[in-house]
Amino acid sequence: MKLIIFGNARHGKDTACEYLRDRYGLSFSASSTFACETFLFEQLRGPFGYASMQECFDDRVNHRQLWYEAIRGHNTPDRTRLGRGIFAANDVYCGIRDREEFESLRAARLFDLAVWIDAEKRLPPESEQSMKLTRQDADLVISNNDDLEALHKRLDALMEGMDMFRHLCSVSRARAALVA
Question: Domain coordinates of the chain in residue numbers?
Answer without folding.
Answer: 3-179
